[in-house]
């Protein structure tokens, strides 16, 4: 019962202690269990709870933005505070919510999917989680520093950052810490995946979620130091008299953008590739049919990752590049549509002639494909440099990246919570509530963000505290939708997450989904505190456990 | 996507009903020619060939994407309806097909190439800023635009373009009015019709972006660097844009107004403007009386300072008060002069060195002798010139 806080901290599920008899070190009780945590499941739980908290904080900031934009004119905040809201909403959602949430999924699921007893570096795992806390305190606390929180946009473009108050330094340090945490998490994931797979679990038999995370981890290691470099140069420009980006001293503000987006573009794939992995687990389970084109999925993921390094300047078409530069980045960007399309086609081919049911995880997965693809289309439209220049820094871009980040990353994670939640907690969620959460989120999401396409095409710039009155109606619709979306997530926490964590609901069987395959469904629900201490013997597809290395054991009850 | 659009409409009605129910003010607003229309959901009607090309490209992409959208999701939703367990569908066993994989890699690749061809032509055209009839430098300041006519008819004209202060106040008060709300400036950029105008952008402090949707032009204005863009308006009229790159707290309040005139009207404007400038040119060595300088200073204050420091001189929400400020009252005039020339508070107070010596002298004198401040001090333009060194 490792994800359940409170009672039964020891967590040995009855009936599954056959090979645990030698185990004298169960879960420590009380606060020590969490502060000293080295168990991948506990750390995964903490990551998920942390990121949900930050999701709520970032969401409140977003609602501040939408409240102000409900009508033209300034009603609630002044323009300076408005800029703080947009900046901190972006930073908190990207670095505090989406990224740690995926690490939480990785912690929970990768060892279970590959048959490893834990993550490779258990104590480093603990450190990478606990580093998040001071970073979060610093970044949220920056609102209370003199001059307020950073207000230069989440992209932290120089030289505007050079004008910011002391909170900018707090923000930079927080990003450094979060970066260190991410790099440690990535090293852990890479080593775990490459070294700790159960015998017989070859790379090309590995579930796609583990595959996408392996690739994502390499992306993180490649680009987090680049971000650290960019913000360190900003820091020395601010305090130590350097002029990397300060034109007054001969620096180049566009260089900042090149460095930032060399990090920033792979970063957006860091936030979507694990989502592809989750969807690739859910679709086959509920279509009761094997994933179509597994090999091409792996190659498509790798192609997207490689291409992500050569498209960064499509964020910078209006900075004024030579024609050849614009053409190169335009072509490279459009090329990404090909492997992304392959993924969507593979998912649909998996559904084709399956035997589908639509429990909540499947609803999220189908919702993901449908709405994420719209974000993909606007991405393709934005890739065309002339159109991009026309809508650069307008709400069209805001709509586009919320379609891929909210409807993409976030929807996939919700799907993952419903899909694996029973395994984590040992309790089934309430199907009706799950469906309410899904439909409310999907509808309010579109009410919020669809009108933003119109606003952007009509030329409404982003990061504006006040806007011409012609834009009023669409802004009102978006604001109404945003509050609905926010409330749906509060509902999710109180009516889905909390009951599961408190163990209220139907007991989850070992295998709650008829068509799901994989090692995580070969162990009891909730997953025992320790799993795979003895390497399992796998069948030829690497999806079933035939026994454990030691004395022969009855095959687990077939699902 | 149509369903979502109609959902949007339904929720629009809901929002409006909600708005009326909660007695929110109903905004009376009409279309702004050359700017946004009420509830505009598409690109602006183009006024240049480039803007027309961009619109064509966008429509083309929209159609291609919608066709793919309906094809792909037609298949998906057909499958969702037909291949359900509840309808007795039995799962098939296929899970691989190299032929199919190659097909759906190659076909999208070809589609992408077909999309890139027309886009390439437009990129090349957009970038060709050669052989311009008129070259204007647009400089981004926190938070206004400066225009300097460099080449062509009207060379030598230069002025600042600032948002109408009443609109800025209306924003703070939460009481916006007018179809051109947040678009009205004191001095629009004036250009002739059917002439190729090259805009050179740069900035004084942070990055801004000069963009006018109807003209199909948007270019970042980078401090310390120059970039260029061009447009050739095909019809006369007023065209509006805004700053498109986050540049600090007044980012939303530095609009762009381009007035496109006929060739004759443009020549007349140039004539008038040049005479005005000759008349207005300040002699930097003139020794001013307190009253004259104070009156001049008030106009400088209203145009530049009042946005933050307020008409009352009390500042507020983090902005320092000038009324009874120790720096303003100080006998050492240089203290205040240096703040104006170099900025203060990490740029919260920007540097105003782009103003002329006379303007700075006037506004310093004004603040030293207005509200409760009665120092009697007069700051002459020569003192500013000396402080600049």
Task: Kindly describe this structure.
The complex is a heterodimer of chains A (559) and B (389). With 559 residues, chain A is an all-alpha fold. Chain A has a two-stranded antiparallel ribbon with strand order 1-2. In chain A, strand 1 and strand 2 form a beta hairpin. The N terminus of chain A is likely disordered. By secondary structure, chain B is an alpha+beta fold. Helix content of chain B is 42%, strand content 15%. A five-stranded mixed beta sheet of chain B has the order 3-2-1-5-8, with no helix packed on it. A five-stranded mixed beta sheet of chain B has the order 4-10-9-6-7. In chain B, strand 1 and strand 2 form a beta hairpin. At the A-B interface, helix 3, helix 10, helix 11, helix 12 and helix 13 of A face helix 1, helix 2, helix 3, helix 4 and strand 7 of B.
Defining key terms:
heterodimer; A: 559 residues; mainly alpha; two-stranded antiparallel sheet; 17 helices; 1% strand; globular; disordered N terminus; B: 389 residues; alpha+beta; five-stranded mixed β-sheet; 10 strands; 42% helix; 15% strand
Summarize the structure.
The complex is a heterodimer of chains A (559) and B (389). Chain A is mainly alpha-helical.
Our estimate of the beta-strand percent of chain B is 15-25%
State the low-pLDDT regions of chain A, or none.
Answer: 1-24
Mean pLDDT of chain B: 89
Low-confidence stretches of chain B are none
Our estimate of the beta-strand percent of chain A is under 5%
Counted beta strands of chain A: 2
What are the SSEs and their pairings?
The complex is a heterodimer of chains A (559) and B (389).
Chain A: H1 31-35, H2 40-68, H3 79-114, H4 122-130, H5 132-141, H6 167-195, H7 208-239, H8 253-270, H9 273-287, H10 294-307, H11 323-335, H12 337-351, H13 360-383, H14 385-391, H15 395-425, H16 431-457, H17 472-501, E1 536-538, E2 545-548
Antiparallel strand pairs in A: 1-2
Helix pairs in contact in A: 2-3, 2-4, 2-17, 3-6, 3-15, 4-6, 5-6, 6-7, 7-8, 7-9, 7-10, 9-12, 9-13, 9-15, 10-12, 12-13, 13-15, 13-16, 15-16, 16-17
Chain B: H1 2-21, H2 49-82, H3 98-127, E1 134-141, E2 144-151, E3 158-161, H4 165-173, E4 189-192, E5 197-203, E6 208-212, E7 217-221, E8 227-231, E9 237-243, E10 256-261, H5 263-280, H6 290-304, H7 306-309, H8 326-329, H9 333-342, H10 357-368, H11 381-388
Parallel strand pairs in B: 1-5, 4-10
Antiparallel strand pairs in B: 1-2, 2-3, 5-8, 6-7, 6-9, 9-10
């Amino acid at each position: 019962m490792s994800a359940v806080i409170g009672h039964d901290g020891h967590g040995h599920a009855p009936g599954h202690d056959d090979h645990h008899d030698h185990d004298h070190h169960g879960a420590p009780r009380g606060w020590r269990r969490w502060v000293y945590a080295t168990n991948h499941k506990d750390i995964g739980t903490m990551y998920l709870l942390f990121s949900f908290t930050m999701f709520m904080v970032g969401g409140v900031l977003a609602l501040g933005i939408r409240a102000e934009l409900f009508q033209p004119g300034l009603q609630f905040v002044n323009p300076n505070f408005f800029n703080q809201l947009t900046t901190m909403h972006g930073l908190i959602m990207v670095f505090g919510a989406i990224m740690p949430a995926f690490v939480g999924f990785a912690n929970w699921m990768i060892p279970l999917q590959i048959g490893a007893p834990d993550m490779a570096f258990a104590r480093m795992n603990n450190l990478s989680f606990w580093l998040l806390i001071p970073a979060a305190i610093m970044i949220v606390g920056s609102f209370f520093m003199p001059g307020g929180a950073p207000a230069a946009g989440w992209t932290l473009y120089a030289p505007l950052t050079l004008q910011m108050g002391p909170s900018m330094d707090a923000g930079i340090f927080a990003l450094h810490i979060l970066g260190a945490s991410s790099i440690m998490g990535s090293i852990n994931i890479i080593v775990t995946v490459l070294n700790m797979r159960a015998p017989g679990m070859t790379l090309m038999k590995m579930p796609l979620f583990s595959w996408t995370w392996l690739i994502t981890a390499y992306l993180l290691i490649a680009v987090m130091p680049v971000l650290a470099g960019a913000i360190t140069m900003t820091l020395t420009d601010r305090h130590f008299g350097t002029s990397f980006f300060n034109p007054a001293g001969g620096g180049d503000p566009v260089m900042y953008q090149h460095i930032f987006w060399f990090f920033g573009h792979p970063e957006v794939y860091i936030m979507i590739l694990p989502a592809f992995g989750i969807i690739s687990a859910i679709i086959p389970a509920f279509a009761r049919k094997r994933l179509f084109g597994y090999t091409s999925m792996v190659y498509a993921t790798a192609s997207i990752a490689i291409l992500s390094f050569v498209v960064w300047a499509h964020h910078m078409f209006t900075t004024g590049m030579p024609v050849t530069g614009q053409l190169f980045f335009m072509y490279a960007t459009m090329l990404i549509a090909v492997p992304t399309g392959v993924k969507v086609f593979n998912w649909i081919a998996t559904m084709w002639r399956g035997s589908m049911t639509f429990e909540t995880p499947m609803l999220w997965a189908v919702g993901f494909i449908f709405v994420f693809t719209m974000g993909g289309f606007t991405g393709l439209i934005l890739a065309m440099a002339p159109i991009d220049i026309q809508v650069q820094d307008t709400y069209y871009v805001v709509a586009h990246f919320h379609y891929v980040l909210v409807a993409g990353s976030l929807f996939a994670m919700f799907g993952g919570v419903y899909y694996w939640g029973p395994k984590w907690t040992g309790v089934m969620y309430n199907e009706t509530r799950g469906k309410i959460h899904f439909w409310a989120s999907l509808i309010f999401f579109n009410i919020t963000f669809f009108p933003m396409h119109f606003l952007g095409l009509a030329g409404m710039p982003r990061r504006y505290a006040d806007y011409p009155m012609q834009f009023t109606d669409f802004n009102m619709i978006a604001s109404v939708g945003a509050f609905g979306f926010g409330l749906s997530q509060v509902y999710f926490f109180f009516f889905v997450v909390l009951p599961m964590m408190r163990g209220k609901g139907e007991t989850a069987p070992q295998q709650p989904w008829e068509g799901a395959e994989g090692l995580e469904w070969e162990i009891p629900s909730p997953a025992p505190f320790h799993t795979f201490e003895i390497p399992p013997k796998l069948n030829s597809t690497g999806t079933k456990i035939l026994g454990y290395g030691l004395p022969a054991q009855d095959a687990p009850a077939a699902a | 996507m149509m369903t979502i659009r109609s959902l949007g409409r339904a929720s629009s009605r809901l929002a409006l009903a909600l708005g009326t129910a909660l007695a929110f003010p109903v905004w009376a607003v009409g279309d702004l020619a050359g700017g946004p229309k009420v509830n505009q959901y598409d690109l602006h009607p183009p006024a240049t060939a480039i803007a027309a090309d961009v619109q064509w490209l966008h429509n083309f992409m929209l159609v291609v994407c919608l066709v793919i959208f309906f094809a792909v999701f037609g298949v998906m939703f057909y499958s969702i309806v037909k291949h359900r367990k509840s309808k007795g569908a039995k799962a098939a066993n296929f899970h691989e097909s190299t032929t199919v994989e190659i097909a759906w890699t190659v076909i999208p690749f070809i589609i992408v190439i077909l999309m890139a061809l027309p886009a390439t032509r437009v990129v090349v055209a957009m970038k060709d800023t050669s052989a311009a009839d008129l070259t204007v430098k647009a400089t981004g300041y926190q938070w206004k635009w400066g225009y300097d006519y460099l080449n062509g008819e009207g060379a030598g004209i230069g002025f600042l373009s600032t948002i109408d202060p009443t609109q800025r106040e209306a924003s703070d008060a939460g009481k916006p009015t007018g179809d051109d709300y947040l678009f009205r400036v004191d001095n629009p950029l004036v250009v002739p019709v059917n002439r190729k105008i090259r805009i050179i952008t740069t900035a004084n402090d942070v990055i801004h972006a000069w963009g006018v949707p109807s003209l199909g032009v948007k270019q970042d204005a980078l401090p310390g660097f120059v970039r260029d863009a061009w447009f050739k308006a095909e019809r006369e009229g007023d065209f509006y844009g805004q700053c498109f790159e986050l540049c600090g707290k007044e980012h939303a309040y530095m609009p762009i107004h381009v007035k496109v005139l006929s060739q004759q009207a443009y020549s007349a404007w140039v004539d008038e403007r040049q005479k005005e400038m000759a008349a207005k040119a300040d002699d930097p060595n003139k020794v001013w009386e307190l009253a004259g300088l104070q009156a001049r200073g008030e106009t400088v204050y209203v145009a530049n300072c009042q946005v933050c420091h307020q008409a009352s001189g009390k500042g507020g929400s983090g902005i320092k008060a000038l009324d009874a400020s120790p720096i303003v009252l100080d006998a050492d005039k240089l203290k205040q002069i240096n703040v104006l020339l170099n900025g203060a508070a990490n740029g919260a107070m920007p540097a105003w060195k782009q103003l002329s010596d006379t303007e700075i002298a006037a506004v310093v004198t004004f603040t030293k002798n207005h509200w409760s401040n009665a120092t009697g001090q007069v700051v002459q333009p020569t003192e500013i010139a000396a402080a600049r060194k």
